[in-house]
Amino acid sequence: MSAVLDVFTFAAVTAGAFFYLAGTVGLLRFPDSLTRLHALTKADNLGLALVVLGLLPRVDSVLAGLKLVAIWLLVLLAGAAASQLIAQTVIRRRPEP
Amino acid sequence: MPEFLLAACMFVLAMVALGLVRIVRGPNVAERLMAAQLLGTGGIGALLLLGAATGDASLVDVSLTLALLAAFASVAFAKAAAASTPDRADPGSGE
Amino acid sequence: MIEALNIGLALLVLALGAWTVVARDTFAATAGFLAYGLLLTLVWVQLHGVDVALTEAAIGGGLTGALLIRAAAKLRKTETAARAERPGAPTRLVAALASAAVTVALALAVLALPDPAPTLAPEAMANIAATGVGNPITAVLLAYRSMDTLLEAIVLLFALIGVWSLAPDRVWGGRPGPLNRVDPNGILAYFARVLPPIGIIVGIYIFWIGADLPGGKFQGATIIAAMWLLTIMAGLTDVPPVSRTWLRVLLVLGPAVFIAVGAAGALWAGAFLGYPDGFAKPLIIVIEAALMPSLALVLALLLTGAPERAAA
After folding, report:
1. Of B18, B78, B94, Cβ closest to residue A82
2. Residues C195 and C245 in one domain
3. Cβ B37–A83 below 8 Å, yes or no?
4. Which residues of chain A have pLDDT under 50?
């Protein structure tokens, strides 16, 4: 059983790391502020979600598992609010169409 | 397994380091705010992986604090950035 | 592999610190400083100082960044004038040489330290049962060196009074900061309604586990201060005028309780801030519970700054 859980952790954390890579590449290579913002928030929220998912089998109490999930939900909420606010600063600087 | 988690932690930190390039180069405030966001999410991921690799459960509490305070700092930054840019008169902007 | 992580972190921190110093735009430098604080949290973790890492995450990652960005926003108008006053090359050369000399002296001092370093950790751990707490940091802060903690709380109060003294005469005792007008249906208002309840619970949780695990009143107070500041920034509440009685009572409550416990200790345990046998843990909890709201209020008010609007 623990071997199955180890494989699960390995797969989930690897996938999470891949999404972090995707988000960072998007931040560096996309042509425009708003596209970069999109890449960043989608990829990093998913990256953290997969990392948390991969670490869940390794916790030794229900409270620790709940804390991990709570961290992910907080980052999701904060990311949503912050990306909206960042997008507003980008739009303000645009000249009138 | 701990070595793999440690390697994953270093990989995420490498991603954060690349994101710092965006803080340095970013032509305007929004880019730098985004890089700070990446730093927050990446830092939290790296801390969780490091805690799992070394078996230190208190790092989860550090990540929790970081999540809350990074959210607060991002909002403070975005608000200050919005206040200092001349904006079009737009009543529905939500700010 | 841990060594590679440490070396990578050290190089990253140095590079980011160097860039933050030379960056031209103040906003950019503040963003760099925020990133620097987050990286420093990881450095503290690697140095096995998890309590310090918690404090760095809370203060460096959040409050100091917000403080600097407010200062940067206020200084924006004077930036071009300040940039025009660059000192001449000889001054900069002398400054560079002086900084290099200080760095070399510090490096020599660090390398000359005895190995293993002299430490009181074994004695602290040997007597920790008498203090009733499990976390040695908390034992040092609130039992062995509680005098330092008391003085630190009072110093914070003095700093706040210093900040208030910067107010112009006509708004003396008024409300700090501008009035924040925010769309009540916008994303910021929504965020400021959802996050603070969670943040307050987390803050109290971090305060509570500080007895036996990394944590404590200071980190908990920082989290609660940040949550209150969030509601102020979103316009859901307004900063109270600093002349309000309840505000001043709450500010003084923490240090006052601390001093009262100390005076009681002088009567019952033979020394100021001594704890009678068996009463150490309850007294520590009382002190921490009184200090935490005062600390949260002080930190939040330090961030909102000097009064700018007359009290209503």
Report:
1. B78
2. yes
3. yes
4. none
ipTM: 0.86
Domain that holds residue A53: 2-93
In a domain, C63, yes or no: yes
Q: Residue C168: which region, alpha, beta or left (left: phi > 0; alpha: psi -120 to 50)? A: beta
Q: Provide, as residue numbers in chain A, all residues whose Cβ is less than 8 Å from the Cβ of B31.
A: 33, 36
Within 11-70 of B, beta carbons closer than 8 Å to C belong to 13-14, 17, 20, 23-24, 26, 29, 32-33, 35-36, 39-40, 43, 46-47, 50, 56, 58-59, 61-62, 64-66, 68-70
Confidence label for B89 from pLDDT (cuts 50, 70 and 90): very low
Cβ separation B71–A82 shorter than 8 A = yes
Q: Which residues have CB under 8 Å from C146's CB, separation 6+?
A: C258, C262, C273, C287
Domain that holds residue C67: 1-78
The per-residue pLDDT for B88 is 44
Structural domain includes residue C174: yes
Count of structural domains, chain A: 1
**pLDDT given at position C227:** 93
Q: Do A77 and C190 touch (CB under 8 A)?
A: no
Any C CB within 8 A of B72 CB: yes
The structural domain count of chain C equals: 2
Q: For chain B, how far is it from start to end, CA to CA, in angstroms?
A: 47
Q: What is the pLDDT of residue A96?
A: 53
What's residue C203's pLDDT?
93
- pLDDT of C41 reads 92
Together in a domain, C294 and C167: yes
Write down the mean pLDDT value for chain B. 81
CA C150, C68, A24, B26: dihedral to nearest 10 degrees? -170
Q: Give residues with Cβ within 8 angstroms of C66, minimum separation 6.
A: B72, B73, B76, B77, C229, C303
Q: For residue C267, give the nearest of C256, C257, C275 by alpha carbon.
A: C275
Closest C-chain CA to A79: C191
Same domain flag for C194 and C272: yes
